[in-house]
Amino acid sequence: MSLSAILARIDDQLPTALDRLTGLLRIPSISTDPAYAAQCDAAADWLVTDLQSLGIKAQKRRTPGRPMVVGHADGPGPHLLFYGHYDVQPVDPLNLWHTDPFAPELQDTDQGKVIRARGASDDKGQLMTFVEACRAYKDVNGALPCKITFFFEGEEESGSPSLIPFMKDNAAELGADLALICDTSMVAPGVPSIASQLRGMLKDEFTIHGPRIDLHSGHYGGPALNPLREISRIIASFHDAEGRVAVDGFYEGVHEVPDDLLRQWENCGFDEHDYLSSVGMTQPHGERGYSTLVQQWARPTLEINGLWGGYQGAGTKTVIPAEAHCKITCRLVGDMDPDALRVKIRKHVEDRLSPDAKITWNQDLDGSPAAVMNINRPEFEAARQALSDEWNREAVFTGMGGSIPIAGYFKEILGLDAMLIGFAQEDDAIHSPNEKYNVQSFHKGIRSWARVLDALAK
Amino acid sequence: MSLSAILARIDDQLPTALDRLTGLLRIPSISTDPAYAAQCDAAADWLVTDLQSLGIKAQKRRTPGRPMVVGHADGPGPHLLFYGHYDVQPVDPLNLWHTDPFAPELQDTDQGKVIRARGASDDKGQLMTFVEACRAYKDVNGALPCKITFFFEGEEESGSPSLIPFMKDNAAELGADLALICDTSMVAPGVPSIASQLRGMLKDEFTIHGPRIDLHSGHYGGPALNPLREISRIIASFHDAEGRVAVDGFYEGVHEVPDDLLRQWENCGFDEHDYLSSVGMTQPHGERGYSTLVQQWARPTLEINGLWGGYQGAGTKTVIPAEAHCKITCRLVGDMDPDALRVKIRKHVEDRLSPDAKITWNQDLDGSPAAVMNINRPEFEAARQALSDEWNREAVFTGMGGSIPIAGYFKEILGLDAMLIGFAQEDDAIHSPNEKYNVQSFHKGIRSWARVLDALAK
C-alpha cells in the first residue's frame, strides 16, 4: 500500500494514539527515586505489551537498575535500531504544577492543543511517535517496512548506569545499520531538524592548596599565599580578551563549519534575540567572530561550573583558606581528543602555579569526544527530504550544544551512526513543572517517522 | 618605698598570686554559650571581690549581655584606664585536652613551669599581671602609684556586643589620660613588646549576576556569560604581578615605616623562617620589596576570604550559574580611609564588568581605620625603658597584622591612646586545646607592670 494510506491511517487513529500515550503517561516512572522502582517496571511492562500487540517479539530485560525493553521486528528494508527512554524526571516542585503531573490533560493553548504531563515530551510522547508510525504500517500493510530493533531504557534521567554494560553484553543482538533516536527538539517551531553533530564533554576538577591550615587574615594577610586569589588568576588565564580559550593547543581538531551547512544554519529559523533575551543577555559572550548559533553548536568551550573556597556564611570571617576548588567542563567539537586535551589543560594550570601552591586533580572524571554524524550517508539525505515533505519546510541538519552520550555509545560500542530526529519544542518545559507536548508535534511526529521509514525502506 | 621593694614583694608573693589566678581560672566563664551565663557572672563577682580587697571601689555593671566590671582607685600620678576581659573561649574539642580545662595545673615543660587551663593566657592570666602589680603597690606602699580605672568586659570572645554602648553611656566615668591593654603577645620569646600600630579593616562583599537563571552548559555554553569566569577575572585584576594592589588610589594614606622603627623590627627576634614554615610557606607572597614582617604589620592588603558559585557537590553538574559571590577584607594601615577606599574598590570592580553582568553589594559591612599610637608621647618611651629593664633586652614597638577593635574604640569614643603590652607567647594555644601561660610570663609580667607604673608615675 502507498505512503498516503499510511498517513491517512495515522490521521484517523490520532485520538486512539493519544489515548495510548495517556495510558503510558499515567505511570509515574521516575527513575532517580528508588520509591518508584515498581512504577518503572510497570512502564516497561506497558511498552512490552504494546510492542507485542504489534506482533513484535518484545521482552523486559533485567539490569542491576531499571529494566530495558528490547523488541525485534523483521522486515525487508535496512536494519534500524530505535532508541527512547520510558523513565521521567521527578516532579518537584509539585506546587508549581497546575495539574496533576501524572493525570495527563489535553488543553487548548495559543499553540493549539497540548498534552500536559510529566514525560509528555521527554521522552514518552516522542518515543511513541515512532511506535505509532510502526503501528500504522502494521495496520495498513500487516508488516513493518524495515527490520527494526526497539531499545528503550529506564535510567536516562538518572545517568544511565546500566546502559553501557547492557550494550556491551548484548552488542550482537543490538547490531543494526543505523540508530534512530527521538529525544531532541526542533530548532524552531515548524522547522524539522536532524541533529547531526553533538558536542562532546571533558570533565575535570582541581583543588589548589596554599597554607597548611586556614589562616587568620590579620596575622598572615600579606605574606600568606591566598588560594582564592591563586585560583581566580588561573581561571582568568583560561580565556583571552576575545573570548578564545588560551590553553596551548586547545583548538587542535576543531574544524570550521562548512559553508553549505553554515547556510542551512543561517536560515534554520533560530531566533538569536529570543534565545539570548530569554536568559537575560543582549549579546553572545563566546569567541568573537562567531555567531551565537556557531558558538553554541560548533565551537568548543571551557566553562567553570563550580568554584568555591573560604567562608560562605553571613557576615565576615577573616580567613585565608587553605584550599580553593574548581569544577570544569569543556564542550568538544570535531576531532578534539578529550584525553589529550586534559593533559593540555592540566599543564596550563600547573605552569601557572605560584611557589608554595600545590594542586590535586580529581582522577574520577571522564570525557567523551564530539559525535559528528556522517551526513553524507544517503539515509541522512533521504530522511531530510522526508521531513521536508511532511513539514513543507526544508529540514535542517542542526548541531547541538549539549552532549547526548547515547549517540557516542552507539558509535563506540555498536559501531552505529545515529540519526537524531525529534519534535519537541523549546518551551515544552522538560525537567520543569507543567511539561507538555504539542499535539501537533505528536501527530506530525508520527507522520514524519512514517515518511522517514518509507524513505529508508527504498 | 622604692621600686625594688615592690619587685621583691612580687617575687615573694608569686605562689599566692598563682593561687589566686588558679581560683579565677576554675570559673568556666565561656561567653559565647548562654549556658555559662551564671559562670560569667561568677567571674565578674570574683574580680569585684578581688579589686575590693585592694581597697578599690569596684562594681559589677549590668549590660544586656555579660556584665562589665568597673573599679576606680585614686592615686597621685596620671590617670590610667586598664582593660582586660574575664571571659574565655569554648573548650571544644574537649577530647584533645590532656587535662580538665577548668582544673588548672602547674606543669614543668622545656620552657619552664606553665599554668595550663582555658583562659590562662587569654586573658585571665594576662589581666591578673596588672592586678597583682597593683596589689604589690598596695601591700608595700598602702596605695597605688597612679589614679587607675579598671575596666573588664565579659564578651570579648563573643564579639563584644555590649562594649560600644557601655563605653558611650559611661564615657565620662571611663575618661583617663591613657589606656593600657594586656591582651597581646611578645614578638619573640624574651622580647618585651609594645604594640603601637594595628591594622584597620574594611569589609565588603559582592555578587555578580549573569544569566537570569542557572543555565545548562551544553545548551548555553559559549554564548552565555559565566559569572564564575567574570568574578575570577575581576579578582585577578585586584593585584599586579608584583603583589601590589592594583586598585586606583589604594595606597593613599599609606606611609613607609620610619627607618628607626624598621631597625627595631629587624632586630626584634621575629623568626621569618619559623613563621612561614609553620604554615607551609617558603617565602612571603605579599608586595615584592617588603620583608615578611613589614608585609604583615605595615602594608595594607586586599584579601578574598570567601568565593563561591555554581555546583560544589560530588561529580559534575553542567551548569552555568546565575550568580557568583565574593567576600573581601582589606587590612588598612596609616591614614587609609575605609569609606573612601570602599568607593575606590567598588569602582575598580564595576569598571571591569562585562556587558550583561550586574552587581550587587552587601550594604551591611563596616570598616575601621588603622590604629597607630602616638609613640612620641613620653609615656611610650618611659614604658619601653621600664620593659627593657625588666627583660634585660631592648623593648620593641611592634606592629600587629590583626585589628584589635577595642584600641580603636578607646580612641574614637574616649579619646584615649592605648598602650598594648602583653606577655603571651605565640605557642600559648589561645583558642585551642591545652592553652597555657608561662609562669615566667606571669611573674615577669607582674614585675613589668610594676616597673611601667613606676615609670608612668614619674
From TrEMBL, chains A, B:
UniProt cross-references to Gene3D superfamilies, sorted A to Z: 3.30.70.360, Zn peptidases (3.40.630.10)
PANTHER family from the UniProt entry: BETA-ALA-HIS DIPEPTIDASE (PTHR43270), SUCCINYL-DIAMINOPIMELATE DESUCCINYLASE (PTHR43270:SF12)
Name of this protein: Acetylornithine deacetylase/Succinyl-diaminopimelate desuccinylase
Source taxon at top rank: Bacteria
Domain Peptidase M20 dimerisation: from-to ranges: 206-355
Annotated GO MF terms: metal ion binding; peptidase activity
One GO biological process term: proteolysis
Keywords tagged on the record: Hydrolase, Metal-binding, Protease
A Pfam family of this chain: Peptidase_M20
Organism: Roseovarius azorensis
Tagged with keyword Protease: yes
